[in-house]
Amino acid sequence: MANYTKRDEVAVIELNNPPVNALSFEVRSGLQNALKSAIDDQDVKCIVIHGKGKNFSAGADIKEFGAGTKQQKPWITDACRLADESSKPVVAAIAGTALGGGLEVALFCHYRIGTPSCRVGFPEVQIGILPGAGGTQRLPRLIGVNSSIDMITSGRHVMAEEAMKLGILDKIVTEDIIEEGVKFAKSVVGLDLAHRILKNRKIEAVSPKVFDDEISRVKKKYKGYIAPLFCLKAIQASVQLPYDASMEQELQLFQHLVGSNQAKAQQYAFFAERTSARWQLPTGANSQNASPLPVKTAGVIGAGTMGAGIALCLITSGIPTVLVEQDQKFLEKGIKTMEGDLRGSVALKKMTAEQAKKAMLILKPSVNFEDLHDVDLVIEAVYENLALKKEIFAKLDKICQPQTILCTNTSSLDIDMIAEATKRMDKVVGTHFFAPAYIMKLQENVYGKNTSAETVATVMALGRRIRKVPVLVGTCESFAANRMLHPYVTEALYLVEEGASPYEVDQVLEDFGMPMGMFRVSDLSGLDIGYKVRREAAKRQGIDLTLGTRFVNGERVCLLADVLVEKGRLGIKSGKGWYNYGSPGKKEAIPDPEVLDIIEEHCRKFGIKKQKISSQEILERMQLALINEGFRILEEGIVSKPEDIDVIWIYGFGWPKYMGGPMFYANEMKLKNVYRKICDFHQKYPFSIHWTPSKLLARLSETDLPISNWTSLINSNSKL
Ligand SMILES: CC(C)(COP(=O)(O)OP(=O)(O)OC[C@H]1O[C@@H](n2cnc3c(N)ncnc32)[C@H](O)[C@@H]1OP(=O)(O)O)[C@@H](O)C(=O)NCCC(=O)NCCSC(=O)CC(=O)CCCCCCCCCCCCC(=O)O
Ligand SMILES: NC(=O)C1=CN([C@@H]2O[C@H](COP(=O)(O)OP(=O)(O)OC[C@H]3O[C@@H](n4cnc5c(N)ncnc54)[C@H](O)[C@@H]3O)[C@@H](O)[C@H]2O)C=CC1
């Protein structure tokens, strides 16, 4: 709703819908009524609109866009039209965020003032829609077409200082926002308002080429997403048509998007991320009843690929960090990497040179573990070797304060075994970052059997603070993310043995929306890593793994990647892998006939008959294999809700948000179809354990319940 009060001759309208003042039906109606009262009241000379609490408004209530629900009138435009027509100045007083419809309300006002920390933006593209309450028409009239295209197609938040430069804000104020709003409104009473009404402003002439170029840019940058292209169409209408006609055009484009599958998936992803933040442990402890410990300083051990990236995340978030290496040479190498990454961020305008310099000032490089004596939390990122990690944790246990939390970035080792090396098993936890750690958003936090709720709360809070998306998972072989990757990768190799080329497989995945096909990703990570992992696992299990091995414990294996490794094809690092890169380190992936010959020879050797495999089969086998594993992970309680899995795939592996995530994708396919197809593959490929259908999937497929109901069903039926 909206509260209406008066301060002398100033009407103060407060948007009131905690926590973010989303513009629900009640708020829109309240705003419309309040504006009417203020305009009708002879004593009122000017009007201030502000938001109750920390935010002005986060825009339309996204839940109202849900399938089948119609936006009830008044819409934002109906509520705000009165401001346009008012002869009394209307001032938006912005604290916190004014996003989407929230900014649209502010653009109906004659003036906008904001606090130094306020942010404005049109993040609609991120939820698959466009600013449908005049945003695409009014912003270009205020800040010009080019800046509007940037803001609206990227969805980025603009800080107060930039908003002031662009002309979105008229003033930045430092005192109480309501007092300042009242003062400002009084100061503009009597001034001519004609030029302040945005719909009356002339729009600059722009050549159609600008839009042609932008369409190409957006298609490349936001590959597969339709909303940014619709935003461009709406902005182009603002240039080509009179205001009323282009508003009509904006509405039509909005209506098309709001009913699209992409919007449904992206809005699901928005709420999935927030649902995933609400973690819980099997003990019942959860994000509501556990409190994080403060992390004022941190330590990182190992300045290699991962450690350097993790340390960067910490220092660029303002956390003073001690970075410890085994010797000066490794330390210097890590610091060079960090400095290079910071230069990259500055070049991309993600931070200023000043901010980069400031970040490096709070890094303390060291080759002495004793320097970790006073830090609040340590993240270990040394080689993947259990004995080494145990040795380091035992050492840390002695050096660090009793309350210090000890985290490991292991990608596969047992958290409990590492914790056993300490006398503080409750304070040991996995914080599994993804490469490149400075860029990838996922932080897979892994609890062991003794990890306390306080420790979990601390690493979940730390994840948000360092701009990651943290997800909580339990311990199992490879944890949740990489465990799901296993059947996906395995199926890709089987497909290649059976007749698809690696390039066809990659094309199908990239057409689906994955940023890179599986084989290109393997080349990027290095084929030798999997090679070593497979050999070490085989050694542990007493298995003699050779290039001639076809079955292990009754399960089919395909060691084609190892054939490439033994021919010196390690991926990008050696200039050749599944693709040819010309020379080591080059990124352009060129399909290589030599690889096709290697595959041919491999198949001949094992008498494998090759056949034509359709794109649909490639996609189904790869996606359904990982989806089945996802249901098993859910069934075993490794994650507590399907949203966790979708967040992992979106932020860890680049699953396109417009496809919602693998669990959402399964939901859209209907579980009974998913289950039937998995059963068919199980029958056809009995030697692949990953096709054994998940019991949870079998049970859920009988119910036909949507994804939003799965968690309560799982929790209410322990037999699942
Ligand atoms: C605001 C934030 C930056 C705050 O972040 P933070 O503090 O980290 O808190 P969060 O955990 O993110 O959020 C707290 C809590 O709030 C919930 N929430 C946040 N924003 C919204 C929202 N906009 N709506 C609903 N709920 C919201 C969030 O989920 C959390 O709750 P929890 O899930 O229970 O934990 C951050 O939250 C943020 O970035 N928010 C999103 C901002 C955003 O995307 N805004 C744009 C919204 S869309 C919009 O404004 C659309 C428009 O421009 C105009 C619409 C025009 C309508 C025209 C009508 C025409 C109708 C035609 C017919 C249609 C036919 C049909 O309907 O079928
Ligand atoms: N590389 C990747 O893509 C990912 C790796 N991981 C995990 O992160 C950890 C680190 O992996 P990478 O960074 O790739 O390894 P890396 O080999 O690039 O770096 C390891 C660093 O640890 C240092 N180190 C070794 N022993 C040390 C000691 N006793 N004291 C201080 N420093 C020591 C080494 O000098 C080296 O710089 C491993 O557990 C790995 O499984 C997790 C996710 C992704």
What is this entry, summarized?
By secondary structure, the protein is of the alpha/beta class. The chain has an 8-stranded mixed β-sheet, with helices on both faces. Strands 1-2-3-4-6-9 form a 6-stranded mixed β-sheet, with helices on both faces. It has a 3-stranded mixed β-sheet with strand order 5-7-8. The protein is globular, with a radius of gyration of 28 Å.
Number of domains: 4
Radius of gyration using CA atoms only: 28 Å
CATH superfamily of the largest domain: 2-enoyl-CoA Hydratase, Chain A, domain 1
Number of strands: 21
Tell me the CATH architecture of the largest domain. Answer: Alpha-Beta Complex
The main sheet comes to:
8 strands, mixed
The CATH class assignment of the largest domain is Alpha Beta
Helix content: 40-55%
- Say which molecules are bound, naming each kind only once: ligand LX6MKDVF, 1,4-dihydronicotinamide adenine dinucleotide
Q: What are the segments in which pLDDT stays under 50 over at least 5 consecutive residues?
A: none
Can you put this structure into words, describing what you see?
This protein is globular. The protein has 29 helices and 21 strands. The strands form five sheets. The chain has an eight-stranded mixed beta sheet, sandwiched between helices. A six-stranded mixed beta sheet has the order 1-2-3-4-6-9, sandwiched between helices. Strand 3 (46-51), helix 2 (76-85) and strand 4 form a beta-alpha-beta unit. The model has no long low-confidence stretch (mean pLDDT 95). Helix 2 (76-85) packs parallel to helix 3 and helix 4 packs across helix 9 (227-240). It is α/β, with parallel strands linked by helices. The protein has four domains: 2-259, 2-enoyl-CoA Hydratase, Chain A, domain 1 (Alpha-Beta Complex); 298-477, NAD(P)-binding Rossmann-like Domain (Rossmann fold, 3-Layer(aba) Sandwich), CATH 3.40.50; 500-605, N-(1-d-carboxylethyl)-l-norvaline Dehydrogenase, domain 2 (Orthogonal Bundle), CATH 1.10.1040.10; 618-638 and 656-716, N-(1-d-carboxylethyl)-l-norvaline Dehydrogenase, domain 2, CATH 1.10.1040. Ligand LX6MKDVF binds at residues 19-20, 22, 58-63, 65, 69-71, 75-76, 97, 99-101, 104, 123-124, 127, 131-133, 135, 254-255, 258-259, 271, 274.
